[in-house]
Specification:
Serine Threonine Protein Phosphatase 5, Tetratricopeptide repeat; 2 strands; two-stranded antiparallel ribbon; mainly alpha; 258 residues
Length: 258
């Protein structure tokens, strides 16, 4: 559900000490900082497939390094291969290449996207218990609670996450939770904050649609329609998404009644 920003933060949260010396050929060696290289590869493109390719090219130098494995797993999630991401993380944890909590944060996302909700929730709560200052654990918990319908729990988790590290992702989840709680003003404001923090939030169909529906509920019909139109310009396939269709239907009904 979430952007590559999170994993870039993962590798920046810890000291940049992961410098490796790897044989480039028989004649010389090259020095690779796997944290920096992983971030650079992930920031080099907005295309998930191209990002994965860029990361795979780092494998000879960085395989087994926790930051790299977390980035690689994250990339696999965003090309629709959460099963591969789970395998990569489990192998990395077994190798003990560092970055345990970051790897488990990615694992939680991989489990969630495979609809292994009980496992994902258990892992999220374990992360929170073991690392209460690690905001990613609260993200992972919020993902699951949103699906299971504990919207108050989502709000609580995201408020804690924002105290630790304010982020657009937390506000996206708050947008959806508040909409489901019929807190339409809070939902619309949460989406506005998410967009101000990271305009790429406009690509997130579920939160954009929830925010648009909240605007419609508040009587801001044109603002809701404009939000939906901007989203579908960036994500044309959103027209096939159920929540987008629901939001657009509500706009059209409201427009006819005006």
């Amino acid at each position: 559900m979430h952007s590559r920003i999170a994993i870039a933060v993962f590798v920046l949260l810890v000291s940049l000490t992961g410098v490796r010396v790897v044989a480039a050929d028989e004649a010389h060696s090259m020095i690779v900082n796997c944290e920096d290289a992983t971030i650079e590869a992930m920031d080099s493109t907005d295309d998930p497939a191209a990002e994965l390719l860029a990361l795979e090219e780092l494998a000879p130098a960085c395989a087994g390094h926790g930051a790299f494995e977390a980035g690689l797993a994250h990339a696999h999630i965003y090309v629709g291969r959460p099963e591969d991401a789970e395998r990569i993380v489990m192998d990395a944890l077994a190798e003990d290449g560092g970055y345990e909590k970051q790897l488990k944060g990615v694992l939680g996302d991989a489990l969630f996207r495979q609809e292994k909700f009980e496992e994902a929730e258990s892992l999220a709560r374990e992360l929170i218990e073991d690392h209460p200052d690690f905001y990613i654990g609260y993200w992972r918990l919020g993902d699951v609670l949103l699906v299971t319908g504990d919207y108050e729990g989502v709000v609580s988790a995201m408020e804690t996450a924002n105290v630790l590290e304010e982020s657009a992702v937390s506000y996206q989840l708050l947008t959806m939770a508040h909409f489901n709680l019929q807190n339409y003003r809070e939902s619309a404001l949460a989406l506005q904050t998410a967009l101000q923090m990271d305009i790429r939030s406009l690509r997130h169909t579920s939160s954009v649609s929830a925010g648009a529906l909240s605007l419609l509920a508040l009587g801001h019909y044109e603002a809701g329609r404009e939000l939906l139109d901007k989203h579908v310009e960036l994500v044309p396939d959103a027209v096939n998404d159920g929540i987008y269709q629901f939001a657009m239907q509500h706009y059209l009904q409201a427009a006819q009644q005006q």
